[in-house]
Amino acid sequence: MDWILPLLLSLSCAAGVPLSRAASGQRNRLLLISFDGFRWDYDRDVETPHLDQLGREGVRAKYISPPMLTMTSPSHFTTISGRWVEDHEVVHNMMYNAKTNLKLPHQKTLTRSEWWDNGVLPLWITAQNQGLKTGSFYFPGGAVNYGGQAVNRVVVEDPRPANETEWKQNIDTVLSWFSEEDFHLVTLYFGEPDRVGHQKGPDHPDRKTMIRLIDRTIGYLRESIARLHLSDSLNVILTSDHGMTTVKKRPEVEELVLNKYLNLVKLNSFEILDYGGFGILTPRPGKEQDVFDALSKAPNLTVYKKNEFPESFHLAKSKRLPPIVVVADLGFNLNSRFIVYVNKGDHGFHNSEMDMKTIFWAVGPDFKKNFLSEPFDSIHIYPLMCKVLQIDPAPHNGSLSVTEKLLLLHGGCQRYRVSVALLLTLLCSLALI
Ligand SMILES: [Zn+2]
């Protein structure tokens, strides 16, 4: 039986990773971080030693694709729920009601459950229902109730521009929830580099300065994780909601003014325009075809009837979206009547545009080292997070098979492990015979 030991050793080595903490009764924790509007290539023209190190010590995706719509609230809620926008119905950063003409800005929506809670459970609640402790620091959708349930610990986003000292304090707070209070999942959100991307444009030197600040913040996060002895138990996913593109202005282009093509007041009862490249309109009764035909004549945009969306948009089932949706060509703003729009950068454009693609890094005990992943859709982050937290996912549209290859111990390995264990038992019985 001299052959048994080498065989067993080679089988164990083939499995390649230490036994899961699940087997020893311990559960690794997860910190999900989002830096809003971090385009996939923002670290290519700036020195980012800490992000580079993150890639060497963990996993990086070449880029990831946000869902349609490439906006903060819709995209974040897809990440945290694993559902397409047509299912979770957070269809805009603004809360609106086309019947009453109510329009609330993004900041005001953050504590309004009726905008977020449409029957889809985000990860915080699903995790809590399985006995885990969760927290949300500034994260969109974290500060409301779902079916009457709140996230265990919530800090609502402070809309003031943040600075480096505050960012460090926020990291200290979140890490103390793990080190002192045994939280399992915390989501942490930063409003940059979205803000600078809008104000100055993605090519402005201030955007590069912001990426350097973010890089230092990641350095501080990783130092703090090590100092608090969390490196062996805390996984970190670093991602974002969408990219950013330069807004095209006169005289380079003819800017779009939609009222030139249709009489907005006469034909529409509700609209959200002047909000970058994505616009929604509710035609007056019987005017839907007129609005569609008029907008179809406008250049540099695509107009859709809601029920004729391409399937890849995953928007057609939405009850909240009005009958007409307009997506401008990359960089064009949908001005309604006048050009009052001041942003130099924006998003909300088609998610197939490279400028709308965003980032994904992950590091920690459950992730591979120095692994560069092919691009994937952000919707597949949800099942990955459930796997890392060892919880049963709620119904979702993601696929673990897309993202589990980022893990050291993925499904295939676990199944293999079972067969190794069976083989071991068999061989041991043989040895005894
Ligand atoms: Zn933005």
List the helices and strands and how they pair.
Elements: H1 4-15, E1 29-35, H2 49-57, E2 59-61, E3 64-65, H3 72-81, H4 85-88, E4 95-97, E5 102-104, H5 106-109, H6 113-116, H7 123-129, E6 134-137, E7 153-155, H8 164-181, E8 185-190, H9 194-200, H10 205-227, E9 234-239, E10 245-246, E11 256-257, H11 264-267, E12 268-272, E13 278-283, H12 288-296, E14 301-305, E15 324-328, E16 334-335, E17 345-346, E18 360-363, E19 371-373, E20 376-377, H13 381-389, H14 400-403, H15 411-432
Parallel strand pairs: 1-8, 1-9, 2-19, 3-20, 6-7, 6-8, 11-16
Antiparallel strand pairs: 2-18, 4-5, 9-18, 10-17, 12-13, 13-15, 14-15
The structure holds zinc ion.
Which properties best describe this structure?
15 helices, Alkaline Phosphatase, subunit A, Phosphodiest/P_Trfase, four-stranded antiparallel beta sheet, disordered N terminus, Gyrase A, domain 2, Alkaline_phosphatase_core_sf, binds zinc ion, alpha/beta, globular, eight-stranded mixed beta sheet, 2 domains, 433 residues
